[in-house]
Amino acid sequence: MNQIDHFLTSDAELAKTHVQRLKFSPKETIYTNEKVHLRNNFVLIKNGIVSLELYHKGKWQFTTFLTPGDCAGIDNFLTPNRTNYNPTKFRLTGAINGEIIIVEKDYFLNHFYANPKLFTIILEKLALHYMYTSYNSHEKNARLCQRMADVTLEFIALSDFQVNENTVIFPYPISAKMFSTYLKAPLSAVSEVLRIWEEKNILICTSDNLLITDYKKLLSFSKMTYLIDEVLV
């Protein structure tokens, strides 16, 4: 990510006009593209973790977490003569402290045409998100406890958290409502699974974080093992 940042700002004068950096804190709304002119921007996560929400059916809905190397606003690259699709309204909220880079779309493209190898950094993260999205779609009729385990492991892998003595600390609370929205599952059913997992000391949900206290047990509920092995080994 530092390579991309350096490349985009190598011309300091141009960068002042076309590139903006924003630091953020937990629970801070960092960026939203609700205003039409902001849909001409591309957002890169330089460091930290952000929560991505999309505006759907009159309300904001949690979609996923974004980590360093991830991006938002990629649908701004669709051209009007190719599709009638309008870019999705989204907003980014800090999960932990970090920084984002906001780049004008055309400025970004002009730079990356000059150094296409740097695209691989972004493409790898996009491919990873696509891989998990495809898997979740395939498993949409699986038992809820499996799907919740799958998603929890997905968030851990995407955030590059390491398993330490069978525990993992996700430094941001993941609520039952977030699971429910992400999986399109009844909130009551999600809450019941979380209650059972807490009783069995598999995880602990607090107002500050999600603590996985028995990673191996959580893994046993999931069928995503082959994806997790590829990412975490």
UniProtKB/TrEMBL annotation:
TM ranges: none
Entry keyword Glycosyltransferase: no
InterPro entries in UniProt: cNMP-bd_dom_sf, RmlC-like_jellyroll, WH_DNA-bd_sf
Gene3D superfamilies, A to Z: Jelly Rolls (2.60.120.10)
Keywords: Activator
Source domain of life: Bacteria
Name recorded for this polypeptide: cAMP-binding domain-containing protein
